Amino acid sequence: MRGVRSGAAGLLVAAAALLLAACGGGTSSSSAPATTSTSPSSSSSSSSSGSSSGTAPASGSSSITISNFMFEPMTLDVAPGAAVKVTNDDSSTHTLTATGGQFDTGAIAQNQTKTFTAPSKPGQYHYICNIHQYMMGTIDVK
Ligand SMILES: [Cu+2]
User: Distance from the CA of 104 to the center of ligand 1, in angstroms?
Assistant: First the structure.
């Protein structure tokens, strides 16, 4: 007896809740699935183009450019023993000389490119231009 009554009351409550949901709060809950179903198609196209790069470390293509009396980049990450290309895009002759003597390109004239071999031991190697000793940079071997 009591079970049947409470069951019928529960059905009424459920029906009332459905009516309330259909009238009042139904708009917010029904619009959410429609917006989420359209977004995966647009996000999948953008993620596929960005995932192709970023796997290859800079092993054979390390390079430094000198311009405006500055080394660019000022800090370069290279693999041990990697060949580093140095291009002088400046109006003056420069060198790339390790302060610890590990590497030295010698004089690099304007528009000239020289290559030196990075140290095989991991660590940070500071270098300067021997002609303009305020020009500084760092080779980070790792
Ligand atoms: Cu210089």
Answer: 13
